[in-house]
């Protein structure tokens, strides 16, 4: 495994909620007046809403720590007796006390250029400290009065889809935790098929490719694709014997090829103009449970591709499917033309809606590489980091180029690398 040094630090940013106590009068700061321009926060290229606005205090820009710290994925504790916030992240513990200009970083004193203050029962800290001690990159846009924060590279689960012309990009596979092989479909009879259509098992090179990825300890999943064009998904959902046969065939294929698991990419489960959506949801959740139970008995993993809850198709029961599957992959794209970057606000909405039903550590954010640029892919990864999701997945490796891969590499700690951490500036 290769080692790559990065000056970006893994941060430990922090903040706490709900300080149900009266602030120290000497350290309380006023909210910005109507005459003052409102200060905004942008994290990883996307606006970050906060319960209290940043303010200017003693000529320093003070930012709400809970909002930012939570988005940076830290463990945060509040000690009401000492008015102290403790934030813990990889390799670092930071303690900040309201009204005190000395912080403790891994037990050692560190100077603040302004003391933490309470505003509307929220702790605000100087943004400069966030940059110097927690490894975030912080900028300022004077024209828009925006604090621009770029989060640290973070380790997350990563999946990339392989197939459909990806062979020339196979050297990138070692950078990802998992690859989803687009080598099978559900045929019109409701059976697993690896010999038809563009989604087929390669006649040449498959064994060598699998040997390569296994040597790099990259996980392997067999994607099974269907759009229900011949009613094949409906057949599985309404015929328990056929569903069990499919599950058995799938397990056998995974065992024969020594693959780690499967990914169901079943789209348009029924006719939305005719079928009762509630019935379809229940039928598909039951099908997923049958398949998951069969795979789990043989220690195989199941991932399920899902349309976003704020998309046009509503046939997926997130909660029930999450009870059976190991992870859910949200196709948070196709909101606009797939040749264009997808809207960040819709993706943020899709994540928040999914989290109402599914633990964040089961959610993978799907990113369409056809749509995104090296800059906009960072926005999408930033949203997955902000909401502390399990990870991100990319459709599809065939369209990657060096700039796109570098953008991902700059934003995440990838499977093939260890980024040394420089703590404390």
TrEMBL record:
It comes from the Bacteria. One of its GO terms (biological process) is carbohydrate metabolic process. Keywords: Signal. The keyword Signal applies. Pfam families: Cu_amine_oxidN1, Glyco_hydro_18. Residues 162-415 form the GH18 domain. Residues 1-28 form the signal peptide. SUPFAM superfamilies: (Trans)glycosidases, Copper amine oxidase, domain N. This is GH18 domain-containing protein.
């Amino acid at each position: 495994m290769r080692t790559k040094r990065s000056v970006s630090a893994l941060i430990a940013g922090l903040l706490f909620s709900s300080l149900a106590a009266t602030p120290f009068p000497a350290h309380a700061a006023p909210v910005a007046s109507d005459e003052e321009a409102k200060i905004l926060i942008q994290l990883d290229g996307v606006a970050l809403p906060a319960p209290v606005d940043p303010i200017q205090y003693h000529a320093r820009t003070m930012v709400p720590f809970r909002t930012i710290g939570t988005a940076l994925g830290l463990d945060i504790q509040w000690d009401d007796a000492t008015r102290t916030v403790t934030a813990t992240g990889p390799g670092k513990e930071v303690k900040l006390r309201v009204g005190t200009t000395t912080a403790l970083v891994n037990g050692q004193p560190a100077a603040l250029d302004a003391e933490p203050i309470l505003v509307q029962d929220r702790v605000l800290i100087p943004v400069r400290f966030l940059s110097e001690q927690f490894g975030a990159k912080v900028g300022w846009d004077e024209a828009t009065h925006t604090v621009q924060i770029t989060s640290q590279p973070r380790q997350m689960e990563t999946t990339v889809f392989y197939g459909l012309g990806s062979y020339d990009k196979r050297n990138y596979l070692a950078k990802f935790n998992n690859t989803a092989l687009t080598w099978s479909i559900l045929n019109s009879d409701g059976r697993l098929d690896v010999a038809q259509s563009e989604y087929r098992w390669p006649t040449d090179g498959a064994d060598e490719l699998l040997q390569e990825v296994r040597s790099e300890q990259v996980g392997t999943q067999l994607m099974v694709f269907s759009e229900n064009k011949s009613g094949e998904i409906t057949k599985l959902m309404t015929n328990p014997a056929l569903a069990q046969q499919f599950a058995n065939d799938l397990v056998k294929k995974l065992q024969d090829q020594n693959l780690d698991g499967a990914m169901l990419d079943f789209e348009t489960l029924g006719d939305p103009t005719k079928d009762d959506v509630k019935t379809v949801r229940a039928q598909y959740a039951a099908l997923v449970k049958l398949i998951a139970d069969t795979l789990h008995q043989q220690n195989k993993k199941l991932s399920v591709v899902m349309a976003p809850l704020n998309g046009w198709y509503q046939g997926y029961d997130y909660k029930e499917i999450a009870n059976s599957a190991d992870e859910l992959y949200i196709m948070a794209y196709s909101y606009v033309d797939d040749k264009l970057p997808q809207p960040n606000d819709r993706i943020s909405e899709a994540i928040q809606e999914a989290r109402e039903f599914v633990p964040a550590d089961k959610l993978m954010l799907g990113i369409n590489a056809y749509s995104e640029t090296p800059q906009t892919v960072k926005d999408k990864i930033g949203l997955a980091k902000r909401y502390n999701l399990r990870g991100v997945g990319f459709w599809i490796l065939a369209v990657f180029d060096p700039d796109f891969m570098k953008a991902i590499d700059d934003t995440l700690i990838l499977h093939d690398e260890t980024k040394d951490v420089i703590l404390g500036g």
